[in-house]
Design a protein that fits this description.
- Two copies of one chain form a homodimer.
- The first copy, chain A, is α+β, with helices and mostly antiparallel strands and 209 residues long.
- Helices cover 34% and strands 27% of the residues of chain A.
- Chain A has six helices and nine strands.
- In chain A, the strands form two sheets. In chain A, strands 1, 2, 3, 4, 5 and 6 form a six-stranded antiparallel β-sheet that branches. A three-stranded antiparallel β-sheet of chain A has the order 7-9-8.
- The longest helix of chain A is centred in the middle third of the chain and has 26 residues, at 107-132.
- The relative contact order of chain A is 0.14.
- Chain A binds a DNA duplex (30 and 30 nucleotides) through residues 134-136, 166-168, 176-183, 186.
DNA sequence: CGCATAGTTGACTACGCTCAACCCTGGTGG
DNA sequence: CCACCAGGGTTGAGCGTAGTCAACTATGCG
């Protein structure tokens, strides 16, 4: 993972970049904060949070190592949403002006950043696609298929999924309550689409709709 | 609108860029097509479409002038989703390799593209935020507030919204059926939050939650 | 003057949310 | 070592509301 790795940075930019550590539940930036920097996650996990009427937090998505945060800083005065650490994390802080200057001077930086932004769009669109599916078990199944780890063999009719974070977060991310997620998994298990062992999930018949 | 306008392009890239016209319901690219180009919309309106189980199209979002399409081409072999014109449109086609080469040579291009990508993320995240609201009338209200045209006076307690496209598309974009959207608008009107005249909507009490 | 399409309204169904109780695990402290 | 507690996950019961299917109207177009 050497996206805009500190080593490959030109001197002028490197001196402006700082490394910041975050504890669980610590805010990296909050909604409406002045947008001064763009962030790149080195390790840990952050949640993108948007303020919602009724004091309920809306978790749009979570970002892991290599993810970009606060890209709104590049063109907006303030952040639209916020980011809060859900695991001990380390992020690189790129001051807006220094970054823009460096982009002009070093073209490969631009390409890297462009790629990172493009990659950030995918899961967002994917999540929206998920929400279009109303039946809980189908949505969950599609979600599982998407995050399945190591499809080892493409032809394999079975795949493994491990949850690295609490169910409630996953439920929130795909737009369900934990109860509904639990019931959906139960149904999938009954129908033989998956089997659960501890915190692992094996999904079968990957090709079947 | 001169994002990567043809005039300001360096010669080497300009000669590779072509202008393509699309009729209504014509595909710009389809899901799983080979991802060879990135597109920028000059005029018209395109819908981002993702294939869903059950032959139902999932409309993630629509893009207008200045929007980027097919950014997946920058790092993926094939497009994840597709794009189809919902109005007569004109798009600029940037071949992948030529674009990348030009980005290295001309830093300002990079900055422009970075900005465009960053701007594309916002509505996606915003839409996800919308979906978190389950009550139809509240979601619709929030949507109306977001797309209100010309807030003329910030202090104004009333704003105007015009729909430039069929209700069914709007309903799909915010994750409802046309019937539900219709009923939601009706309820909002009953509650005095909006008033409807033909295809215009006036929303009141903008500050009230 | 039909025909197709969009929007509205109605009645019914279904399914996800809410609230609640319960189980289970891990951590803490006596 | 056990008692207690807190939190996450699982069930259960009942409700509310968005989806579905259908009929009807209005509008635009051939």
């Amino acid at each position: 993972m050497n996206f805009l790795s500190i080593d490959s940075l030109p001197d002028d930019l490197r001196h402006q970049v700082i490394r910041r550590k975050l504890a669980v539940d610590q805010w990296l930036f909050r909604p409406r904060d002045l947008a001064r920097s763009l962030f790149i996650i080195e390790s840990g996990r952050l949640q993108l949070v948007r303020p919602t009427l009724g004091s309920k937090r809306s978790v749009s998505q979570s970002a892991g190592p290599g993810g970009v945060l606060g890209e709104a800083a590049l063109f907006a005065e303030r952040y639209g949403g916020g980011a809060i650490a859900k695991a001990p994390s380390v992020v690189w802080v790129y001051p807006k002006e220094a970054l823009i200057k460096a982009l002009h001077a070093h073209a490969d930086l631009s390409e890297t950043l462009i790629g990172m932004l493009a990659r950030k769009i995918q899961p967002l669109a994917g999540n929206l696609e998920l929400r279009q599916i109303k039946a809980s078990h189908q949505r969950v199944l599609k979600y599982l298929r998407r995050i399945e780890t190591a499809p080892e063999d493409e032809r394999q009719e079975t795949a493994l999924v491990q949850f690295d974070r609490p169910f409630k977060e996953i439920a929130a991310e795909i737009g369900f309550t934990p109860e509904t997620l639990s019931r959906a998994l139960l149904k999938l298990e009954r129908d033989g689409r998956i089997t659960r062992t501890n915190d692992e999930i094996i999904l079968h018949n990957r090709s079947v709709a």
